[in-house]
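look at this stuff:

>
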Amino acid sequence: MKKIFLFALLFSFYFSNAQQNLVQYVKPIIGTEKMGHTYPGATVPFGAVQLSPETDTISYELNGKYNGEVYKYCAGYKYEDKTIVGFSHTHLSGTGHSDLGDFLIMPTQGKLQLNPGTASNPKNGYRSAFSHANEKAEAGYYKVKLDDDGILAEMTATTRVGMHQYTFPKSDESHIILDLMAGIYNYDEKDVWTYVRVINDTLITGYRQTNGWARTRTVYFAMSFSKPFTQYGQKNYDGKQPYRGFWGKFDQNKNFPEIAGKKIRMYFDFKTEEAEKIKIKFSLSSVSQENALQNMQAEIKDWDFEKVKNQAQAIWNKELNKIAITASEDTKVNFYTAMYHTFINPTTYTDVNGQYKGLDQGIHQADGFTNYSTFSLWDTYRALHPFFNIIQPSRNNDMVKSMMAHYNQSALHMLPIWSHYSNDNWCMSGYHSVSVIADAIIKGIYNGDENQALEACITTANHRNYEGIGSYIDLGYIPAEKSGVSVSNTLEYAYDDWCIAKIAKKLNRTDVYNEFIKRSGNWKNNFDKTTGFMRPKLADGTFKKEFDALSTNGQGFIEGNSWNYSFFVPQDPTQLVSQMGGKKTFTSRLDTLFSMHLPDSFFAETEDITREGIIGGYVHGNEPAHHVAYLYNWTDQPWKTQSQVRKILNMQYKPTPDGLGGNDDCGQMSAWYIFSSLGFYPVAPGADEYSLGSPIINNAILTLENGKTFTVEAINQSDKNIYVQKVLLNGKPLNSLFIKHSDITTGSKMTFYMGPKPKQK
């Protein structure tokens, strides 16, 4: 008890004397309702473990077809639900597709039930009803009362270990269930194989192989109990198998120490006194059971739950204090929850000994860097990785090195597209590792071999049999007959090619620069000057006649329509303005985008967007147009950027469970909020400049890794004073709508003077 009190005292002293207590503003419950797809459970910054509740067991398929209901459970937890099935150790944050949900644990008491039951009748299984009134979600900590059995569930985490604490009632029939069949986006054949070894009455190890979004994924575990179990058992749901060997000589269902199969649920029995706590340490590894056990022993040495929780929150607080803001209470909640969400992914993929499993299924040693996984690059290249280049440059350097390791291990010799757990799931379009690498090189973040990185980018961009790249190289566009996302792929390849050109220019590779700067103009091949829209083009060079600029279906775009994608030329807004007819016409088109009304039929075609994620026809709930509000800065009416940015900040982000207007997408939505709250945004990652907007904070101090600070001050900022009257940089007038990356990293102060009316000049 004295030990806990002393640590709490030191923890309090640490907050009050060295840092602000910013953990109090983090509300992980934000985004768990409707479209945010975040999870409320416990994790630490960039942690390999995400210990969080699942609220149902929806299958990916129904009657042999995709089950649309499963989309609501990308993070495993849906705020609207009334029951909890259990707590699993791996989750994706804010995605629009899913995987993981490994190693589900559920405490129960009374008659043993090994099926999960149903939401309408939870008492038919091991799930339990719960109330949000008895639930708390904080950075690094989650707790909830399981009403049906009167059990208090609490959890926290280290980087590679989840720690559970369950407070039981008095019972001779207390159980811990380990469901090795459970998973997110599950289907009948997803579990390839499961192995469990019971080492003694407090320790088990094992692994699980799955074939899901990550096609060849093996996760090893070690599980330790604070109290010996009295007995244990399992049920194998494999059904009829053509061959079972001679294992039938044993009774494998009860107290048998070596278990294997595809569909296994286990239970561990205990006798508990009133309010007795049973604790579990559960560690993960991509390499081996031995490494999982080593991770556990290195990161949690004892059974002090409060100590682990306090350590997790101290780590979070240290990260959050990298930006200290003065703002309204709601803005602080939105801002620091956004920071929390940006620091969840990518996830650590090395064990404590530096080992990890590579794409080649071999065991690799990360030499001098941390290997990361979970790269949702179609989303995160836009703002998340540029944000890291300011506030987490060392980590982003390691992330680029992780991408290079991926490339070197890839049988296809390609940089990652969307990767997790030693797999590329090839989701979405573009080859946006190129953007992340370029941004890190241009801004001086990457300290690896830049020429090797450039060669990896070139090789990836020239992979002719991937998503129309061959046609793109030969024709300058992808024919509509060959791809349902021909236009968006062409536009995104053109941007990525510009990024390659930027690297080549820095490295004095003139031949490469000339080739890829030319390719970066390929967007013009899909631009129809007669309509002002990006349109699908046929192999014969004519535009496809059937065209609807509002539709997201069959028009050549992925997760967007032509109205939004027609502004996707972040690498050359000046030329886009010219192509659209000049500044006046361009401004008018932007105005129309933000003010139009979308018909209900628009929403019938897409599962990931609702009206909450849209302003006019501008889709903020998806990523392709995230830079568009800033494009007014290339017109004669830049104050409209300020107006629209403020509108987006206030309408798309709220301190409530449904506070995100769309999928957070591994932190991209949150990174947009952070940048825009501070008053600037990276329209084209790979460039060394940021476009100015309208800050919603009063003051912000960014503490950088190099020891410098960058301060943003917004004089007279308010809900009415949204327009920038003038900007000073280090006390001198900034006669530009842009600042350089070096303005931030060398340490400076940017002061916005705000007013209620636009500054016309």
The first helix runs from residue 2 to 18. The first strand starts at residue 52 and ends at 54.
